Amino acid sequence: MVPVRTTKSLDELRRDIDAIDDRILELLNRRAGLAIDVGRVKAGQKRDFHSPSREREIYERLTRANPGPFPSEAIRGVYREIISASLSLEAPMKVAFLGPKATFTHLATMQHFGLSAEFVPQKSIPAVFEEVEKGRALYGVVPVENSTEGMVSHTLDMFMESDLKINAEVLLEVSHDLLSRTGRLEDVKKVYSHPQAIAQCRTWLDENLPGVPVVDVASTALAAQIVGDDYTAAAIASEFAASLYDLKVVRKRIEDQVNNFTRFLVIGKKMAEQGGDDKTSLMFSVKDEPGILYRMLEPFAKRGVSLSKIESRPLKKKAWEYIFFLDLTGHVTDPMVADAVQELKGYCQFVKILGSYPRAK
Ligand SMILES: O=C(O)C(=O)C[C@]1(C(=O)O)C=C[C@@H](O)C=C1
């Protein structure tokens, strides 16, 4: 128990909180009014309404200035919603994501943009790219990598054809629940989920539901939808899916491995501005010759640019030729990174910068 340091009663303390909330509300509305004015100025100057670099500046300034005891980690979440709501007053922002509603991509999208953006579910990763390319959505969000299952090759392949840029990455801890209409384990005669989620819960399923058929479907959210109409089935999906599709949680956190993270990419038409703690993703292809990969990496090594990932994908047009995807620390406008990329271009058939964006914390 925290020692009591006040002589006020509970009622008095709550009255004090009410008075502060009234002031916060008044200030929120004054802030919203200013955001509307900012929106008018921007419209007059034909500038983008959404300004991620300004948002970052606000988060960082407030976190630095926070004297406590309000937790600094909470500032980002609170301000993300304030800014998301303010932006919706300037201009509605559409974000396409790999749906249906309640997928982990949907959760990552809400985590990144706040709840006041307009979220548009898409049936496939190519459909998310198309929404952004055609300008029907300002941004798109797609999964790219899971810490236990590896890369989402579909997303990497899209960058071969698309010129969209990676604007941000979002890291989300993926935790699976078993959901059903009744909430009772003994009623479960069939389980539905996405193959990756099923793989991540294999041991739990074998131990707790031996012999029960497990059916692959296109997403964890679709599994939750299906189970909404079937009292004898259960879905492996997020807790958020339970609230959205009116299901009960049979068991929480049934994944075999804790620390299961998925990385998502936010894609848009423009390159993100430099932010101070950025990373860059690029892809390149090379002729198949001895020592070529070593030479590819040398421009970065000799300038001290650290590489955090290298992936290869087959070039579909030609057998046994590969495209490499590289993640490195720094923004493409940093002189060291720019020089290394320039040198790389000298050895490659092609090099494409997929984006420079803030490193997820
Ligand atoms: O400063 C701006 O450019 C604004 O539009 C205001 C504001 C905010 O609420 O602070 C809202 C949205 C932008 O993405 C960044 C900041």
UniProtKB/TrEMBL annotation:
<dbReference type="InterPro" id="IPR036979">
    <property type="entry name" value="CM_dom_sf"/>
</dbReference>
<dbReference type="InterPro" id="IPR010957">
    <property type="entry name" value="G/b/e-P-prot_chorismate_mutase"/>
</dbReference>
<feature type="domain" description="ACT">
    <location>
        <begin position="281"/>
        <end position="358"/>
    </location>
</feature>
<dbReference type="GO" id="GO:0004106">
    <property type="term" value="F:chorismate mutase activity"/>
</dbReference>
<protein>
    <recommendedName>
        <fullName>Bifunctional chorismate mutase/prephenate dehydratase</fullName>
        <ecNumber>4.2.1.51</ecNumber>
        <ecNumber>5.4.99.5</ecNumber>
    </recommendedName>
</protein>
<dbReference type="InterPro" id="IPR036263">
    <property type="entry name" value="Chorismate_II_sf"/>
</dbReference>
<dbReference type="InterPro" id="IPR018528">
    <property type="entry name" value="Preph_deHydtase_CS"/>
</dbReference>
<dbReference type="InterPro" id="IPR008242">
    <property type="entry name" value="Chor_mutase/pphenate_deHydtase"/>
</dbReference>
<keyword id="KW-0413">Isomerase</keyword>
<keyword id="KW-0028">Amino-acid biosynthesis</keyword>
<dbReference type="GO" id="GO:0009094">
    <property type="term" value="P:L-phenylalanine biosynthetic process"/>
</dbReference>
<dbReference type="Pfam" id="PF00800">
    <property type="entry name" value="PDT"/>
</dbReference>
<dbReference type="GO" id="GO:0046417">
    <property type="term" value="P:chorismate metabolic process"/>
</dbReference>
<dbReference type="GO" id="GO:0005737">
    <property type="term" value="C:cytoplasm"/>
</dbReference>
<keyword id="KW-0963">Cytoplasm</keyword>
<keyword id="KW-0511">Multifunctional enzyme</keyword>
<dbReference type="InterPro" id="IPR001086">
    <property type="entry name" value="Preph_deHydtase"/>
</dbReference>
<dbReference type="InterPro" id="IPR002701">
    <property type="entry name" value="CM_II_prokaryot"/>
</dbReference>
<dbReference type="InterPro" id="IPR045865">
    <property type="entry name" value="ACT-like_dom_sf"/>
</dbReference>
<feature type="domain" description="Prephenate dehydratase">
    <location>
        <begin position="94"/>
        <end position="269"/>
    </location>
</feature>
<dbReference type="InterPro" id="IPR002912">
    <property type="entry name" value="ACT_dom"/>
</dbReference>
<dbReference type="Pfam" id="PF01842">
    <property type="entry name" value="ACT"/>
</dbReference>
<comment type="pathway">
    <text>Metabolic intermediate biosynthesis; prephenate biosynthesis; prephenate from chorismate: step 1/1.</text>
</comment>
<feature type="site" description="Essential for prephenate dehydratase activity">
    <location>
        <position position="262"/>
    </location>
</feature>
<feature type="domain" description="Chorismate mutase">
    <location>
        <begin position="4"/>
        <end position="94"/>
    </location>
</feature>
<comment type="pathway">
    <text>Amino-acid biosynthesis; L-phenylalanine biosynthesis; phenylpyruvate from prephenate: step 1/1.</text>
</comment>
<keyword id="KW-0057">Aromatic amino acid biosynthesis</keyword>
<dbReference type="GO" id="GO:0004664">
    <property type="term" value="F:prephenate dehydratase activity"/>
</dbReference>
<keyword id="KW-0456">Lyase</keyword>
<keyword id="KW-0584">Phenylalanine biosynthesis</keyword>
<dbReference type="Pfam" id="PF01817">
    <property type="entry name" value="CM_2"/>
</dbReference>
<comment type="function">
    <text>Catalyzes the Claisen rearrangement of chorismate to prephenate and the decarboxylation/dehydration of prephenate to phenylpyruvate.</text>
</comment>
